[in-house]
Structures are given as C-alpha cells and as structure tokens.
Amino acid sequence: MSVGMTLIGWYLRYSRKPIWSNASRFLANEAGPKANPEPPETLTRVHEITKRTIAGFVTYTVKPRQPSGVIRAVMYLHGGGYVNEIAPQHWALIGRMADAGLTVEVPIYGLMPTCTWADAYRFVPAVYQEMLRRHGEGNVILAGDSAGGGLALGLTSVLPDLKMPAPHSLMLISPWLDVTCSNPEIHAVEPRDPWLGLVGARIAGEHWSRDGDPLDPRISPLHMDISRLPPTTIYCGTHDIVYPDIRLFRGRSPKVDLITCDGACHVYPLLPVPEGKQAAQEIVEQLTKAARA
Fold first, then answer.
1. What residue spans of the chain are helical by DSSP H?
2. Which residues, including other chains, have CB under 8 Å from residue 211's CB and lie 6 or more apart?
3. Using one digit for the tens of pLDDT, what is the confidence trace for 96-136?
4. C-alpha–C-alpha distance, residues 233 and 285, integer Å
5. What does DSSP assign to residue 68?
6. Dihedral angle, C-alpha 23, 155, 157, 270, nearest 10 °
7. Residues 140, 131 contacting (CB under 8 angstroms)
8. Structural domains in the chain?
9. Using an 8 Å Cβ cutoff, are 148 and 76 in contact?
C-alpha cells in the first residue's frame, strides 16, 4: 500500500467515517443541500457536452469533439450512497473516457431523502433505451461506482422484463450489492474501512428501498438472476465494506473478473493515489478496447 493511500485513509477516517458511523450525522448529511451536479468548466472546454431531460431528470452526454471511430458508448452511473451528488472525481474519470474517444452518458438520478429506487427505475431504463436507439443493440456498456455500480447491475437484472437487450458488458468500481448489509463478514472489514460505516449504510439502504423489498434485485443486485449477467469487471479494495458481498457475487459467476487491491479503500480508482491512477488507466483502456471490438 502506497504512502498516498495511507494518507488518504487517515483523511477519510477523520472527515467521512464519522458521518457514516453516526446516525444523526448521516441523517443531517442526507437532509442537507446537494452539490452542483453540472460538469466542470474544464470538461466543457475540451469535450462536446449536451444536456437534456428524460422522465423529469437530467442526463448529460459527454463526447469527444473529434470523431473517434469508437462503436460503443458508455453509461456511467455515479456513486454517493444514493445520498451524495456526482463529484469532481467522477467527472475526472468520465473526462478520461471521453479523452480516449468514448461517448459517455451520465444520468443524474434523484437522491434521498426526496427520491428512492422507484424514481431511478422510471428514469435510468429510459436513458438506456434511448442509448440503444442511438448506438444499436449490443453497443452500450454500463459502468458505475458504489451505489451507481449497484444501480448498473440492478438495471441489468431487470432488462429482460423490460424487453430490452443486455448491455455489451459492465465495468464496476466497488459496487454496492446489498443495501441490507447483512453479510456477517462485513463486521470484520468495517474497522479497516476508513470511509464507510454500517450505521450510515443501513440507514441509506432502508431509505433508498422505501416502499419496496430491499432484497429486490433492482435494489440489491447480489440477489439477481446470475444468468442475466454479461461479462463484468469489478475493481475493489480489501478495506471496503462492500468487498465481502463482491467476493460472494464473484463466487456465483465465472463471468465476473474481480480485480482487488490489498489495503485499498472504497472506490480507490477514483482517488489521486498511485493505486487509483493505475486502476483508472486500466479501466479506461479496457473500456476503449471493449468499445472498439
């Protein structure tokens, strides 16, 4: 583990862990103002970005200004525990994808406490369907991190019921697979996780699954029909409370390629540390290769 990963772990343990480990702090964060989800100016100067509304929510398309010959497009669903808005780290990775010639669709789905899973499933499938019309069947790759990674898998699980084809593949970073966090192995990992805590995660899961079954695969894709899974790549650190469920998910399907980083924390490919920079480069390279195949 690099010095950078150690330092950022210390920072997260004192800045973010208290929010996810304390019910009142988490609830205050959930009810507080959300960050501005608009793409940063640095991204708009370099790439072509369009904004439109589908089913009452905003989605952005980020495209390279010059034609790249890439066949497939990527839908990127950001993380944040279904309570925090898309962050600069997400836009930075999306920008690197566009730098490599990829077209990236970025749905800005609704967050708690105002919205729940039901609002997401009125919006995200509609964006996916529009992408199919623009790019063709088999030419959409789903990607996402944390809660967004869980939503990408949840969408995949429901596509046959919606009479829509599966995505070409999935690229996921620390996906949240079970909002109940009921895997007993999580308790052993939580003290090593410098960022997330079970208290906040379980509150988030309870609120996000409101008026639904928290074990519904749309909400907790750990329980999805694994036969519906296309080729899937997952990046995850071992000091991450979602890691036990990801290992369980990987054990159920040979279609899952799991890349782990020993000692790394949640969504480490988004972080400005050596391990994260290397993983982000690999992710962009793999997506570009899949998009050109």
1. 3-15, 17-20, 23-31, 41-46, 88-99, 117-135, 147-158, 186-189, 198-208, 243-252, 274-292
2. 116, 118
3. 999 999 999 999 999 999 999 999 999 999 999 999 999 99
4. 13
5. -
6. -60
7. yes
8. 3-31+39-292 (3.40.50.1820)
9. yes
Q: How far is CA 105 from CA 98, 123, 128, 163, in A?
A: 10, 13, 9, 21
CB 124 within 8 A of CB 155: yes
- The per-residue pLDDT for range 59-78, each reduced to its tens digit, is 999 999 887 778 899 999 99
Give the global pTM.
Answer: 0.97
Q: What is the CA radius of gyration of the chain?
A: 18
Question: In angstroms, rounded to a whole number, what is the distance separating the alpha carbons of residues 114 and 111?
Answer: 6
User: Checking DSSP bridges between strand 256-261 and strand 169-173, what pairing results, if any?
Assistant: unpaired
CA dihedral 92→233→85→122, nearest 10 degrees, is 130
Contact, 175 vs 149, CB < 8 A? Answer: yes
Distance CA 2, CA 31 (A): 35
- Separation between Cα atoms, residue 206 and residue 188, nearest integer Å: 22
CA angle 26–31–33, rounded 5-degree value: 115
| CA–CA distance, 256 with 270 (Å, rounded to integer) | 21
